[in-house]
Amino acid sequence: AGVSQTHEVASEIVTGGHVMRPRTGQGSIMMADKVGVSTRNFKELKAVVVRHLSRLKRLSGDDLTLQLMGLLQKLMKFRFYATAEEMQNVVQPILRTLDDRKRDSNALGLRSGSKRHAVRGATPAAKVHPEGQLLLADDDEEGSRPTSPMSQDEPPKPSCCSACVSGLCALFPSPRAVLVWAESVKVMLVILVIVLGSVAVAVWAQFALASDDVEPDWLLLLDEIVFIFFTADICIRYSCWIMMHSFMPTAFFSFWDFYRGVDGGCVSLDVAAILFKDLMGDVAKAGKLLKLLRLLRLARLIRAANIMIEIMNAMKGEEEEVFELPIRYDVTPKVELRMMANVVDVLTHVTRVAQDYRLSRLLQAFQAFHEQRQGGRTSRVRYDGLEVSDRTQPSDVFEYVIESSDKGPQSLSLGTSDEVAYIMLNLCLYNYPPLVQSALTLLMDSNRARYNLLQDLKQLQLLTTPDQEDMLSTLTAKLGRLQSHAETYELWIRRETPKHRAAADEVRQFLGDLVHFVESKPSRIDYPLDCAPMGGNRKAQRLLQHLDGALIMAKVFREIYGSLHDFEEDAQEASLAEDPQAAEEAESLLQETRGILELCNRLIQGFVRGNKENQTEMYKHLGMFEESIGDGVNSVRVIAEIFKANEELISMFDLVFIGKIADLIANSDKDPECVNILTSVTCHGTSPHPDLQARIITALGAPGRQDKVMFLCTDPSGPDYALRKELCADAAEAAKELLLRAGPEALAGKGVGAPPRLISVDKAPDEASLRHLPSLLAYHVSLINLMAACAAGTKNINVVEAKLQSLYPIDHLLKGLLDRDLLPEVQLALLRYLREAYIDVEMHYHALSGERHLWEFFGRVPDMMQASCLDLEAFAAAVAKGSQEEVWTHAMRTRLEIIFEMLAVLRTFFQAYFIVSKVPTAPIRKSLGLSAAAYAAESNSRSNSMGEEDDDEDQDEEPGLGEESSSDARAVTTALIRRIVLGARDLVEVGGRFLTDGFLVESVDSVISILEHSKHLPEDLLREADPSTWHLPKGLTPEDMGRFRKNRLAARRAWTAGQLWSDSRLESRPALGSSASQFEGSRDHSSIAGGGAGFTVMNRLEAFVGELEEDEELQARIEADMFSVTSEILSLPEIKESPEKGDLRREYLVQRLVKQVYATIKAGLQTGSKLLSPNATRTTIWMLQVFRNMIEVKWGMSIEDRDEEGGAEEDHKAHKVQVLLNQWGVTALCLDLIANGISEELKIEAVKLLIALLFKEGGNAEVQRTINEHLGRSDSSSFFIEVRHMISNLAEWHKLFPSGEESLQAAASAMQAPPGAAPSSPPDMWVSMALGSQAIFGGDEGGGGGGEGLPGAVVLLKFLQLTCEGHFQPNQELLRTQEVDPLARFGRGGGLVDELSVQNSINVNLLDEFVWYLNVVSKIPYREASAAGIRVAELVLEVLQGP
Question: Is the pTM of this model over 0.85?
């Protein structure tokens, strides 16, 4: 049983009388008490709805039906339909009204019937308008008709009237039938004879009669007969056309094509001849004029030729009837379409309740499964009709729940899958995007019962103790009260009565309670120790999400925020009126309201922090927070948290908003929170956003704004630098006073290096966001961090790096790092700036090799490591004793973060800049404090280990540097390296189990990099520093370290969102003490560990889910469910088949589905970006998968197998489906979906479908031409830019994660070992730890990686190769160069443009990108890189080869 605010099923639904209300997909589950039958039932209203639905044959647009359907939707939404019986009473009538297969549309004038096309072996092609509208290539104006309410059903009439009307209608043929008869071969033959006869007579009269001869009477009679015949013909056709199109204004003009215009012109000439003959008395003049008119009437020869062509085609069998889509799909009034969308939403609601019901039953079945496993092998537990024994597998329980839930009186099934599929597919033909989207959503959900149930089971929150149930009840009550107070805010806005003041106090109290809940931590210690506090509680976030907390928070803020400006105006008016009492009251209300809004924003911050789903929910209310910036309610913090590390939302970030934030910073008191907004959008995952980074730097450095914004404190002799030191001193003094107030023992500690006690748990979130610092100092640190973030990345960002180097010179930056008076927060920010702007740059700053201040700073690193090691030793000792007295402070964690950044700097520096001959020895000896004896010892150790190889090395030294100087530099460098690598080892061994995977990997990688690039190190140092001999934390494996390397950039740039502990290390958490028992790691361990029994249940449930995911038969059933609609689509008739086979045709369905996606795509806020809503993204992914499955079904294999196993036979089987999808817009749609802002999963699915369309021996020329035409006829810059971006990401992935198999690690070890090193140094473990193991993206799981462990986006290479298959030269040229409009990048004026004249805004030479990618992977000697290199080489070959 379960609980949520979204759905409710009363006691009749769940066996045993338990209430079940889980939210679909992520239900909060708890064991609930039995409840009585609900009294909130509205029986009479529900009875009226059922009676009305039972009488309806179709959904009409009358007011009664409209109001009742709206009422039904609300009754469902507010859970007044509480039993399965009540829901089924409305479900079946709704499905019947939506199913129009048994209704005759002909009598209603809604059917267009069929249309003649001269078919030459293919169906009419489709083209895509730039705005997304699909048009038939050979369709005339008949193809699209305007809407009209006149063509809808009339209200039901009495039976006698209906009989009379039906009888009258039966006496006369329909307009469509008349037109079909008029275009039959027999009628055309008669018309051809008459046309040719009249033309022959006209030719005879032209030459046989003189101009002054009187025409014989028979000729005049013949002219009148021909005139009457052709006039009647054109009038009948025109009248039938108008009636068939419901007398719409456009129908009067759409009738006239070229040939009908010729007929009309000839009839007009006949009329003119008769009129002139009667009006003109002069026979000679009349004869001449009639002769001229008769000559013009010879134009009927054009029609005769057209008729002969049609007759010849019909006699050859080449003419086919092409079914035309009934016009009701385009002319149905919007009021009816909205009503249809509403009733589909009702069905969707029922489907989701059914999902919840299945989840409830599955949990009850799992309980029986768990009890049986606890009872032993011989025990048997019965649940419903399932007997659970030791042989019962999780998949058996799962399948029983699926099958039994759709049977019996409690079933909420909509019917057979094929019936529901046909009805929903039919609704997809309507020209109304909301209806089509609702139908697609319902169709997808109804075909994914097993998939949805498994996902629900994986994502649920299990509450297993009474305390947890009480907590849920309390949260539900408080959220309900907050919602009630928000809805009634206008009543207590002035706090005029005690009751009103009590409401305000309750709102403030409840918000504070929820803030404490969402920011609460399981202990006073934040694990891991080197990672910033999360500042939130993932369990609380999910629980609030399940209770519709996002909507309630937004409502509270919106309702109360509206009064803030009113109170400000009241205070100003009272002040001007010199009324102190009124001013005091207004100011009190203002401050109280602002305090409530601040609490609400703090709650929203904790709700969205690090949670992408919650971020997406609150993004819907972004405008509300933007409006409240500057009102003192901390909305900027909410905006920053909404975007932080959320790639999808960052792609939707408004570039104009960057300038607004920059102006706000310049015109305000340098608010650090505004800077944090920009920092949150600079980098996400492993893909920095160069466009945003460059725009931020440009906006901050704009003339007139830079002086107001930049507070970098660069010059050590300047006033800003002195002010920074003063602020640091004030902050340090304030922290010292805080400790003194806690007692002298807290300040002194309990021993050398022992950390002080934590003063306040609530202080940790403030420290993480720098709120414990003075505002100006916090702004300075935030600004430095922002500038460093703007330089993150290694490609196409050199302009930003140059700008940063000019803003903060290297000598000033290093002097700041050496200043011991600066706080650790400032030093950490400067260190990040050094790494991003000078060390890890695209254009190397070679002067760093001998920079004295830099080496002096390096010399301080061992002391910094030693201080942190003492902190970790004291902490580890306290944990070993089980003491909770000692804690970990913010300053200690900051020092560890500095070491983490320093290790990254050292690793990159030794790789790119280290030259031993340029090392200055004096600053290193000064920092290390080396005495003469120590220096001599290092020098002797160095000389003993050098051997004869020193002479060879000296040859590489720069001129002017003698052997004595070179030896001195080597000895000092060796001393520094020894202390650094041994310090890193001590940190890992002493505190490794308390630190993140990221810190451990950075330590190992830095040591390996230093040892690799420092030649001729002593053998004793190599042995002592060998990472394979380190005592690493239990559970840390090379695979875990490899996973961190995949996200190295994310962990270094956004430390609070970095990789934490691996799953294997999470299993050993109890060894760390109870304080870490609720730490959340890389996997979602959000279940509440409520003791032994609860912990056992949760472990059992996790194992249960794991077995279900690994069950191959279940996965096959899930796939079969998801693609069951494929057979339904393939079985639909084609447009060339007879009208009797129904209105739902395969071609029109594909066309409308493609059009639906175009209707939901919106232009992004960034140049070339496109946006799709989350729901539209889900349905579009599924739709593309179905299209691909249609081809794979014909092949009998997947696209992964097609390249190796397929041949000409498979090409023939799938050709028809490929032509169907290509001609009706699917190819163009897939190309348009490869753009910035579109979900990565959706882009990969689009690429896979394109691969399926292109697969054919020798190349699929039709699809290749479509690709070339679509990309060449319009501005396709977004496609080529995104392809370049995807290739860049692939190369970056190989750089960050160059993993290989064990068989290749030995060779890699030999290649990467220092020259002359002994075979035992470094061993295999060294390389394994440095380079990781297999990628986390498997062949199938990674989206077509092919088994080499490559990312899913690698399928892009195969698609590009197939576009050029068979030496298709147009695409070969297109990948290299595109036509560029030089004015495009500066923007064009508004209005419509011809799609054929639009050129690209930028040329992207993809061949250069391929060669660059090949160059990258060719330097990485591992299987993944080799596999990618083979694919790239094949692609380059396909692009280049040809005649």
Answer: no
